Amino acid sequence: MPLLLLPGLLCDARLWRDQAAALAPIAAPVVADLTLDDRIEAMAERALASLEGPFALAGLSMGGYVALEVMRRAPGRVTRLALLDTSARPDTEEQKRRRRGLISLSRSGQFRGVTPRLLPSLIHPSRLDGPVADDVMAMAERVGKEAFLRQQEAIMNRVDSRPGLSQIAVPTLVGVGAADVLTPPELAAEMAALIPGARLRHFAGTGHLPTMETPEAVNATLAAWLVA
Fold it and tell me: In 3D, which of 176, 178, 191 has the Cα closest to residue 89?
């Protein structure tokens, strides 16, 4: 069974590297490219066109926004759903204001990707100096400014997905880093409460990127979700 993996903002296949390797014996992982479009709807359509037939679906952060759009567009093709470190809510006005500021800076030539100053919002403090931090910064540089601009526009204009959560009718996992400050555990709990039968899982000692920070815990959780 294909497993479609959806990355977050300024993320590429490295985000899911360890899961793709660990889950290969029980699934056929495919990492979607979410760098080419400036609308969540277009990202979802491109992801859907990347494979045929039914598939399991997992998204992290922005990838979660895209996953929820995929569920709206093709619910019959998704066999199970995993939403990691994401939210069903739209941006607040304050969040939009901050995104517009980042867009303006980037368009004026001040794109900085993920800097050491931004790392505390992405990963647990215990990993600020080490290979995970290095990989996060390198990943952002690979994605680059133009994709960053497209992704921010898409995120900023996403819809409120909460009204449709009660219609999700596949086995659903909602996971979140216990120390995630960008999409904190209360947002995961909100989604899990609205999706019938959803299972909620917290990853201890982990920030916004548990797939990179605590891959073994995420791998085990996703393996159980795939065969449940």
Answer: 191
pLDDT in tens, 183-207: 999 999 999 999 999 999 999 999 9
Residue 214: closest CA among 83, 140, 126: 126
pTM strictly above 0.85: yes
Cβ contact 6:59 at 8 Å? yes
Strand partners, 173: 82, 199
User: For 77-98, what is each residue's pLDDT tens digit?
Assistant: 999 999 999 999 998 888 888 8
